[in-house]
Fold this protein.
Amino acid sequence: MNIQEYIQNLSNGKADNMSVKKMKKVMGLLGNSQDKLKYIHVTGTNGKGSFIEMLNSILMKNGLKVGKFISPHLVCYNERISINGKNITDEDMQTIYQEIQQIMEKEHIEISFFEFFTIVALIYFYKEKVDIVLMEVGLGGLYDSTNIIQPMISVITSIGYDHMQVLGDTIQNIAKQKAGIIKENSETVYMAQKQEIDELIIQTCQEKQNTLHIIQKTDIQNERVKNGYEIFDYKQYQNVQVNLKGKRQTQNASLVLECCDILQKNGYVITEEAIRSGLMTVIHKGRFETIYENPTIIFDGGHNEQAIENLKETIDIYYKAAKKIYVISVLKSKDYKKIIKDILEEGNVYIFTNGNDKNRYTDNHSMVKYAKKVNQNVEIYEMELEEAVQFCKSKTDCVSFVIGSFYIYEDIKKML
């Protein structure tokens, strides 16, 4: 079986990220290579990907060899594991898979899709002798497969409602899961949230003798938009320009700047020139990404309450006066009713699709029925995904937004 066939079989199996005990056992049998690397461990309901792309851009411009572990992928599995922007090859993955397979067969261990990629990443980064690893949590934090590492810095970007069937149905329970990546004798960078969440993070850091760096929203000054850049001041950094759209990106960038300061204190050479250049040139695919022009079509994979709020806020900054079309596809595991309530506004056009897999996505008829119940005065359609894309391409007087799921990205790109 080749590596892509093996991965495809895993992806069709049971989802299971909550597996720290098993991960420790497997990595122990494989030599505990994860203990020989330097990490920045990143969790959060939203903002993880943007944070990682910004910091990755900066560290690469400083000449560091940077391992990056992210999820989900947009086009191919290999995107989840990369070094300095170059994805792991099938050949390298096959070699590591053969090492893992020997252990699994000998010890009668089965691993999940996400466990497999976490193990491969940890071994690959060690073999390639990276200077630092940017490790994104798959789900939550406390019981996530990635939570066997000892990071230099833990980062919590935001805490909101998502994956409640696993993480819990209260914001406090979700926060406890995110706080699970805070480790002893390390440092944590955290964007202030509601008071009860802040208190939980503070208490966790105190218990673990972890140095906490809290960023208050008031620490971010003089926010503005110019020439497509989000511009702001943070501490000693003035007129910082970020090449990612949305007010929340200044918050993500502030977390990045705080991490850069910590890394500098720990002996890493990170120049201000590289910081500014990294933020000005950063690219994050799948997040408010313009994927077609004339007419403008923008893709954003946001799929929870907080992400939709951020999306609406960004649209109001850049496209407030435009007539808008929304193409919406929602996985069955997500709360489509909440998304519809948050996004529905009179004057816009809404198209609900079955995504690229009717077995995985909420059927568009159910979503249309609910949307009409919420607001009968909104223009609403149900279409297949490709039909919706062609509809958007034909509307030259509108700006279109394809939202609700990252997993349709590749299909959308092929349709344009």
